[in-house]
Amino acid sequence: MNQIKRVVIVGGTHGNELIGIYLVKKFEEMPKLIQRESFESYTLIANPKAYEIGKRYVDTDLNRCFQRQDLENPKLSSYEAQRAKAIYRTFGTGGSLAADFVIDLHSTTSNMRLTIILPSKHSFNLRLAAYLSSVNPNVKVLYSEPKTSDRPYLDSICEFGCTIEVGAVAQGVLNATLFQQTKELVHIILDYVEAYNEGTPPQVKDTFTIYQTIQTIDYPRNEVGEIQAMIHPQLQFRDYEALHPGELIFLTFDGQEIAYEGDSTVFPVFINEAAYYEKGVAMCITQQLQEVLSL
Amino acid sequence: MNQIKRVVIVGGTHGNELIGIYLVKKFEEMPKLIQRESFESYTLIANPKAYEIGKRYVDTDLNRCFQRQDLENPKLSSYEAQRAKAIYRTFGTGGSLAADFVIDLHSTTSNMRLTIILPSKHSFNLRLAAYLSSVNPNVKVLYSEPKTSDRPYLDSICEFGCTIEVGAVAQGVLNATLFQQTKELVHIILDYVEAYNEGTPPQVKDTFTIYQTIQTIDYPRNEVGEIQAMIHPQLQFRDYEALHPGELIFLTFDGQEIAYEGDSTVFPVFINEAAYYEKGVAMCITQQLQEVLSL
Questions:
Q1: At which positions is substrate bound (chains A, B) (predicted)?
Q2: What gap in Å lies between CA B105 and CA B23, rounded to an integer?
Q3: Does the model's pTM come out above 0.90?
Q4: How distant is the Cα of A250 from the closest Cα of chain B, in angstroms?
Q5: Is the peptide bond before A168 cis (omega within 30 degrees of 0)?
């Protein structure tokens, strides 16, 4: 693998996730914070119009607009489709400032601590994630096997990098503790890339824990799609904790308790994320795996 | 004072405060929950279009649209101005279903527990608040001396009632614990009104604690109005706790700590409420007072 020559740090892919937006603004005011010797650093507020109106998006979720087939489709003309095309033309493969590595900064109403979402299991990404989880126990590593190779997420604009999800924090709110932890995490990532470029990446243990998504669970809904239950108090904010068959996951508006009906212990994440109500996702179910790094 | 003949329970004055909206939906499905012998109960989703689009409001904050001078101003034609006029024509003084008592259900990203906001210091409202805070230590009573008698809040449509603020909960999210606590609080209020109508209101102690707003504090901002600091981690979620002069309230994006410069101990509330960033309010400063009930 060649060196990382250009890094892009993205905030505001969702306009109401303020930590990434204000972190990018800070980096733009004080560019030395993200400069390193061996690569160029760029910043981007991905969805400025959504930030202006204080919403996740204007027309459609920007972080689902990056499939190659959509980027190449001239008929797609929503604000976010246009933004995705412009971002890809700049930082994507063959772009005017084609990036080798992307950090996409998100926040969530779920208690996701400092989650690194792996875009792929390329050994570079795995080693970085292993390193990050070794230096900070709050770092969790999440991975979803993509359904097709054409992923719709912003972090798919280059082969290397990650999406960072920090929480729990409300939409439209800055949380100073999470802001500082995210800033620190970005610095550690940039330092790692620098060390990698210099041929001296930090050593990591050869196994580390990842959480791999196996399914999503929707809220119970009625025939017209209205939700009929809430996340059970016993599950709220318990992202990444073990959920055993028979444990309670929902409480209906009538006070009935609904248990998890799977047949094995799982680890739910993105529990009660505000933006996922409309996506039909009350939580994502993961398995906890020990990932073995190849030499 | 006459009997309370008609009560209206309002949710969704802000479209992204889901607890009140889903509670009103539940009451509409199961009207027996809010029926009592001595009065009629009505429900209202105040801002259905804002709820549809998942925002606080469409054009302007509905909960600032109820000044009489605005309700009578034919030139005001925003969606919310029209909604306020329609609501007042129905449930306001002289309306087709003029209400004597209103409960307006809100939620907040601040850690406000179960806050009763008093619309006035009428002895009926005070006695109700004293009772509620006596039955549940999570209930806090908040009062702001109005600048003019023409208050802009929805709860000003009738003389009696209150606004309920529950939190901390993110916008666009249901929290089951707070949902159930709010439901319980509404039941207790309705039972209180019933007992009052029957001439047997519960006895209360003759003093109780209220928090009276004395000022608001904005975020530090630069010359173009952009915020330059966040709520300090030591203050986050500490609504209703004592804040002493010299204690830290903000952390700038550069890591500088800013202390409270007042000269007496105060009790901040609405700390880091998402919707107040645009209103120039990082927190409201209150004094803790012992309110004495008149006989």
A1: 56, 63-64, 165, 276
A2: 9
A3: yes
A4: 9
A5: yes
